[in-house]
Amino acid sequence: MVQKAVLVTGGAGYIGSHTVIELLNAGREVVIYDNLDNSSYEAVRRIEKITGKAPIFYKADILDKKALLEVFGRHAIDSVIHFAGLKAVGESTQIPLDYYYNNITGTIILLQAMKESNVKNIVFSSSATVYGEPPVIPIPETSPTDAKSPYGRTKLFVEHIIRDLCTAEKDWNAGLLRYFNPAGAHPSGILGENPTGIPNNLMPFLAQVAVGKREFLSVFGDDYPTRDGTCIRDYIHVVDLAKGHLAALKKLEENPGCVEYNLGTGVGSTVLEMIHAFDKAVGRELPYKIVARRAGDVPNLTADPTLANKELGWKAELSLDDACNSLWNWQSNNPQGLEGFPADAPKEAVINYL
Ligand code: UD1
């Protein structure tokens, strides 16, 4: 059988690039499709350094249907892993239309282009944010859904859209992967999260405090109903998360229809526990201050990953220390992230009909 390629939208981003590495290491052919809006072509060069294989790359937008059709026409693609999208929760409350247009309209256009190209397997990058404030911890996939931000609602609406499509057309298969909190970096130390501007998320912010780029970490609230008053999250090593996508792709070969899975470890950590775990990796105590709660944060998001363990044969294997050590290895070797390296793609990789 001729090996078919996987199209990875957003494949130059944080989770996308780590997933591309796992796909290439598993011998899959990969086509990256990314508009480089919030990522750098340098990530693609580093994927090649790590794997010794050059993924096919297009700089193009998921809103550009003609570009999508052209790429599907050029390669024998049989499945799509869809990461592309805007992802900052706070920003989504300021510019909701941009979020709905990019994340929802963009996904509809991608699904239309897939249908016209007869590609009907999709793995979608969803989020634990779809659980809102869950009634039961750890959270099973059957927990009620209720997203609290425009960003979260884009994830939830896209889940509904894909599920409706699979119900209407039985030849579609979809894996909706609800990520908990990705952390860590590639063990090579040359690839990791590369936030532009001030990081919104805990671990990249803490990493920038450690290299002296930020003065201290603000801990958003210590009056939550948790063991130390700070919020609990389920931090999962990005390499484990990446491997979950391979397991989901395999699952789609069984024609399961639309299935959703939590990708988490099942173990929650508080903000203070994360600070201390990262202190250990860095070898000194990092400065932090307790400040007011951040709007929209919920006390506890911890996965029940049993379904993914059973049905995908996948389990998070790396520890919190692995995540902290790899993050520190990446951040200390690359204090400016990928800044300073040519960020744009080669001209021949650009397709733009918008
Ligand atoms: C959020 C989104 C999630 C999204 C993820 C990545 C929600 C509920 N979650 O996760 O959907 O996929 O971002 O963009 O919308 N914290 C601090 N100080 C900081 C930063 C964070 O104390 O400077 C705390 C937060 O209050 C929270 C924890 O650290 O308790 C984790 O925050 P963060 O890394 O931003 O992730 P989430 O908010 O869980």
TrEMBL record:
It catalyses: UDP-alpha-D-glucose = UDP-alpha-D-galactose. Keywords: Carbohydrate metabolism, Isomerase, NAD. Its EC number is 5.1.3.2. Residues 7-325 form the NAD(P)-binding domain. Gene3D superfamilies: NAD(P)-binding Rossmann-like Domain, UDP-galactose 4-epimerase, domain 1. CDD domains: UDP_G4E_1_SDR_e. One of its GO terms (biological process) is galactose metabolic process. Pathway: Carbohydrate metabolism; hexose metabolism; Carbohydrate metabolism; galactose metabolism. It is an enzyme of class 5 (isomerase). GO terms for molecular function: UDP-glucose 4-epimerase activity. GO terms for cellular component: cytosol. InterPro entries: NAD(P)-bd_dom (IPR016040), NAD(P)-bd_dom_sf (IPR036291), UDP_G4E (IPR005886). Its cofactor is NAD(+). It comes from the Eukaryota. PANTHER family: UDP-GLUCOSE 4-EPIMERASE (PTHR43725). Mutarotase converts alpha-aldose to the beta-anomer. It is active on D-glucose, L-arabinose, D-xylose, D-galactose, maltose and lactose. Homodimer. In the N-terminal section; belongs to the NAD(P)-dependent epimerase/dehydratase family. Belongs to the NAD(P)-dependent epimerase/dehydratase family. This is UDP-glucose 4-epimerase. It comes from Mucor saturninus.
